[in-house]
Design brief:
alpha+beta; 12-stranded mixed β-sheet; Putative ABC transport system permease protein
Length: 421
């Protein structure tokens, strides 16, 4: 129940020495401020790193062929083999839990020979033969026209989607792109769309805008690939880990291509989910460090409040003696000291949260005017759970800070207290 007299007494006790109270409260305020800022900075770093993945489906693995290291079924080690289009159907049939299997072929490469010609302009670009699902694994914004569809696949249409980097280098500024033709390794392809890749992070972000996508079937026909598949991008369904399914996928390939079951070198792979999980583990550790450091700083402030409350109890020995003589119970004395401690802790702690929130808002405002796509830091923030956690920490800290002074207060005998001057 709210008692005006009790709260007046608390305010009067804490305001009797403003300078001492402010210095005491600063320790708690600073501890909460550091805690919230560290958590927000950790979140900003996490957002920046995840932004660097550019929306890529992280539950994905990439798989390619390598030379077998063991002879098997009369076949020598060191031989070369290729994935086939039939491998895709076999994997789908034998490995449940997969969402997308994208066979891919590729021409060109960064720093390679010029393989694309338009009029008098030439350029060296990565050209991919893909299925429409690849856009779910490597998200991109279609800025004009459209992406590949299954009619393109079925009819083996010689159409292409080009990146904005290709457009800048091969076309004039206001020149029409859609409906124009590019010559890729001597074969004409009509441009039906342009894209802008979401940031890939790191040094390859610019090159990600200089790629060309054509239908897998048209690619195979135009460049005499037959039923060969260069490599695959395989994504698991939600609730399934590609890391757990990876072994089954590789086993299917080994069986179909007569590779020794114990040959770990014959099938190359990169598990994006495994790497992403390591990064998530790093951020969990960073959050734990933030809580550890923030709570240690907060603890120093709590010790300061406890010491000041001990001094306050000592200064009010006479008052406590009078209250005890007039019939005040030990619990009412203890409750009064604890209330003062909790009130001071919460007020100072909430002040720290307010200041920290202001700093976070200012940082976000500064970042809003910048291109953060290539930064490892974006949108630092704390969610409601952090604020609730901070409030619980403050309440617990206030109880801890006032516990010893409260116990000392109820140990004072009325006669001894009245005798004190």
């Amino acid at each position: 129940m709210f008692s005006r007299d009790k709260w007046s007494e608390i305010i009067e006790a804490l305001s009797s020495n403003w300078f001492r109270t402010i210095l005491t409260a600063f320790g708690v305020m600073w501890g909460i401020f550091i805690l919230v800022i560290l958590l927000a900075a950790g979140k900003g770093l996490e957002n920046g790193v995840k932004q660097g993945f550019g929306g890529i489906a992280t539950n994905t693995m990439f798989m390619w062929t390598q030379t077998p290291s063991k002879a098997y079924k009369g076949l020598p080690k060191g031989r070369r083999y290729s994935f086939k289009t039939g491998d895709v159907a076999a994997i789908k049939e034998n490995v449940p839990g997969l969402r997308i299997i994208s066979p891919r072929n590729q021409l060109g490469g960064f720093g390679g020979n010029n393989n694309v010609v338009r009029g008098l302009e030439t350029g060296a670009y990565n050209v991919y033969g893909d299925y429409p699902e690849i856009i779910q694994q490597e998200p991109m914004d279609i800025t004009a026209g459209r992406f590949l569809n299954y009619l393109d696949i079925e009819q083996k249409r010689k159409v292409a989607i080009i990146g904005e980097g290709v457009q800048r280098e091969l076309y004039e500024k206001n020149e029409a792109v859609l409906g124009s033709y590019l010559k890729i390794n001597g074969v004409n392809f009509m441009v039906i769309g342009t894209y802008k890749k979401k940031s890939g992070g790191g040094g390859n972000a610019e090159e990600a805008q200089k790629e060309i996508y054509v239908p897998f079937t048209a690619f195979s026909q135009a460049f005499n690939m037959g039923d060969d598949v260069g490599w695959m991008a395989i994504t698991a369904k939600d609730g399934n880990s590609i890391t757990n399914l990876k072994g089954s996928v590789i086993d299917v390939i080994k069986t179909r291509h007569s590779i020794h079951p114990d040959d770990d070198r014959a099938v190359g792979n990169f598990d994006l989910y495994e790497e992403f999980s390591k990064i998530n583990g790093l951020f969990v550790a960073l959050k734990a460090v933030a809580y550890f450091v923030g709570i240690l700083v907060l603890l120093s402030g709590i010790i300061g409040i406890s010491n000041i409350m001990l001094i306050v109890v000592k200064e009010r020995t006479n008052e406590i003696g009078v209250r005890r003589a007039l019939g005040a119970t030990p619990w009412s004395i203890r409750g009064q000291i604890l209330m003062e401690s909790i009130f001071l802790t919460i007020v100072s702690g909430m002040t720290g949260i307010i200041f920290a929130t202001g700093v976070i808002i200012a940082i976000n405002y500064a970042l809003s005017g910048m291109d953060t796509s290539e930064m490892m830091f974006a949108n630092p923030s704390v969610d409601l759970r952090v604020v609730i956690t901070a409030l619980l920490i403050l309440i617990g800290s206030g109880l801890l800070a006032g516990l010893i002074p409260a116990q000392n207060a109820i140990k004072i005998k009325p006669v001894d207290a009245l005798r004190t001057e």
